[in-house]
Amino acid sequence: MSKRTLDAFFKPPPKRTKPDNTSTTNEENNPSPPQSPDNHPTYPHSIAKLPTHLEKALSEAIETSNREGKIMNNQPDLDCVYFQPFLPRRTANELFRVLRAELPFYRVVYFAKRGGVDVEIKTPRFTTVFGVDEECFFACDDDDAGDGNGNVNADATPAAADINSNSQYRTSPLTLRKSPTTTTTSSTLPKYTYPPRPIPSILQSLKKAVESATKETYNFVLVNYYATGEDSIAFHSDDERFLGFQPSIASLSLGAEREFLLKHKPAPATTTMTGSADGGGGSGGAGGTTIKLPLSSGDMILMRGTTQANWLHSIPKRKGRGLAGVGGRINITFRRAVIPAGTDNYYHYNVGSGGGLGVG
Ligand SMILES: O=C(O)CCC(=O)C(=O)O
Question: What angle (nearest 5°) sits at the alpha carbon of residue 156, between those of residues 153 and 157?
Fold first, then answer.
């Protein structure tokens, strides 16, 4: 399969830049041989594994980083934890470059009803998503071996719902399975409009680290790529019913600093948000406090409890400083969808038809 990543759409292609810190380790000078990449029928191209030295840096960073975070609950209904930083700048910046080069990103265009009329919405940033809701998980025949109870091995539990760390030993492809814990009685798989994609190995260590720091488990990884200061996400909240009651969403920043805004929702009668963050609803804000967090590379914010039900958040366009100085930013949100409607929603808005790389 030919590999078409975002890099193909930016001229000149990004240089293999040296890490920010000019001193290089032996492992960076003599990196270990690359492991075989992840392939899956739902991926548009293979996705490399995380380089070993970065994998190591990530686990070291996790042990030494500020894992406690700062609790932000001094406003009505606000319940956030600000990890500043969660990852050291150097590790975060290298992760940014690797993910930008490896993940398949999309510029999704979709239609939404506005005043009874179908309006075309162009998502103002690149997006991609991996994962599946609680009703299913990914496993392969190898995972089933040796367990007469039909349980998959420890790394491929339904909670993991992803490519596990033993993926280099796998001989059969990952397939979607019905979760044994699902509340529905039917043993048939849900009819998804978009085929769910397993979370690739390249995101696994990060997911585990975020789960450990936030004491939550996630089955979705949504990635936003803001290529320039013109890319943005409008005020919205992630309060869809498919996320369950009081969802916890961890949001990690990599690359250029961007301002993250939080403001309390207006009275319900004036709230008009539906569908996605980019559909033009939810101007929000009844004149209350707007919290501004300058999210730097490696910072993470956990939004939990009553936050999503009551607060809106956004990344506004960054103007006035010239785009050249702004640089790209990747944001990774870790979430948990409980029902198939969540899976369909996330693929609809973040992958779409799966085409149109660079469109928009
Ligand atoms: O980029 C960010 O920090 C925010 C992303 C976000 O709000 C979302 O994906 O729902």
Answer: 90
Per the DSSP assignment, residues forming a β-bridge with 251 are 301, 333
> Is there an atom of ligand 1 within 6 Å of 197 CB?
no
Taking each continuous run of H as one helix and of E as one strand, the counts in the chain are 7, 15
Q: What is the pLDDT of residues 113-153, one digit of tens each?
A: 989 999 999 999 999 999 999 999 999 877 654 333 333 33
* Angstrom distance (rounded) from CA 353 to CA 145: 35
pLDDT score of 254 more than 60: yes
**Residue with CA at minimum distance from ligand 1 atom 8:** 333
- The single-letter DSSP state of residue 168 is G
d(C-alpha 258, C-alpha 213), whole Å: 23
Ligand 1 atom 2, closest CA: 331
The boundaries of the domain holding residue 30 are 6-11+26-350
pLDDT of amino acid 5: 58
Phi-psi region of 358 (alpha: psi -120 to 50; beta: other; left: phi over 0): left
Strand arrangement of the beta sheet that strand 233-236 belongs to: 233-236, 311-315, 258-264, 290-295
State how many domains the chain has.
1
Give the domain CATH number at 193: 2.60.120.590
Task: Say if ligand 1 is within 6 A of residue 239 CB.
Answer: no
**Torsion angle of alpha carbons 74, 78, 79, 84, nearest 10°?**
-70
* Dihedral angle sign, alpha carbons of residues 329, 330, 333, 334: negative
Which of 221, 237, 260, 276 for a ligand 1 pocket mutation test, highest count of atoms within 8 Å of Cβ? 260
